[in-house]
Design a protein that fits this description.
The protein is an alpha+beta fold and about 270 residues long. It has 8 helices and 7 strands; from the N terminus they run βαββββαααββαααα. The strands form 3 sheets. A 3-stranded antiparallel beta sheet has the order 1-6-7. A hairpin with a 4-residue loop joins strand 6 and strand 7.
């Protein structure tokens, strides 16, 4: 049953259409950008994986990975813009923002090497070398241990993309060590990201998977037809789709026996 115990959380890769214009300031370009980002996440926050579209309404913000206050060129930099729920964007990500201010010499270097400008910008949808170089410095700052979305962050030691996995039996997010070989420093970076967005904080952590498992057990292995509000449930349910109802019941009963005591003490 080990294959059901660890869920690899996706790194979101938006698909931008060549015939569409994307941007942050222009209303129609902004709408196109939101649409592309929401499509890539299937309607979930890029940081906490909570559902951001409810009852047909989008409860999310366009979020600048490297804050646009560092350079006006970052305002319209498409690879630097992600989609986040209002709590992740307006509360958790803003913690320590002043200490993430990039020094003027790095910004000057970025602006010289970057071929885009606000007045005459290219339709760049892939992070250029100048942006990646800036991101490398940004991620070295103490308060910037953040797996930036959607461009992602590569580990300095392993060179592998930093990612999360979800431990089903512990109901916790953790570094994706089952799929990657991270150094201690990279593991600490990912843990700092988890802590920033309160992913395992008892006050904020999702209990959606526990509710899902309990629902399946109560219904003798029948999968619910309605959607839950966190991506971890969708990923877990996908693991069960090729199983019989009896197999699903047995899997969820085994998991529930372990989870129930933990949730009673939460």
């Amino acid at each position: 049953m080990e294959e059901f115990l660890v869920l690899k959380m996706p790194l979101f890769k938006p698909r931008y259409r060549k015939w569409k214009r994307y941007g942050y300031t222009n209303a129609s370009e902004k709408s196109n950008l939101k649409e592309a980002l929401e499509e890539s996440t299937e309607g979930y926050c890029m940081y906490c994986f909570s559902r951001v579209r409810v009852d047909g309404k989008l409860y999310a913000n366009l979020e600048h990975a490297i804050e646009k206050g560092n350079s006006e060129r970052l305002t319209e930099c498409i690879p630097n813009i992600g989609l986040a729920c209002t709590v992740c964007n307006q509360a958790f990500k803003r913690i320590g923002e002043r200490r993430r201010k990039v020094p003027a010499n790095y910004i000057s270097q970025y602006e010289k090497q970057c071929k885009c400008s606000v007045e005459n910008r290219k339709q760049c949808t892939v992070a250029c070398r100048a942006l990646r170089k800036l991101q490398g410095y940004y991620s070295s700052l103490t308060e910037a241990k953040i797996i930036l979305q959607p461009m992602g962050v590569s580990g300095r030691d392993s060179g592998e993309e930093l990612a999360l996995q979800y431990n089903v039996l512990n109901l916790k997010f953790e570094p994706a060590m089952d799929a990657h070989t991270y150094s201690d420093e990279e593991m600490n970076f990912i843990e700092a990201h988890i802590n920033r967005f309160r992913l395992n904080d008892p006050r904020y952590r999702t209990r959606q998977l526990y509710d899902f498992v309990r629902n399946v057990v109560d219904n003798n292995g029948k999968l619910p037809t309605y959607e839950y509000n966190n991506l971890v449930v969708k990923l877990f349910q996908e693991r069960l789709l090729d199983k019989s109802q009896d197999e699903i019941a047995k899997i969820c009963e085994s998991i529930f026996i372990i989870l129930f005591p933990k949730m009673q003490g939460a």
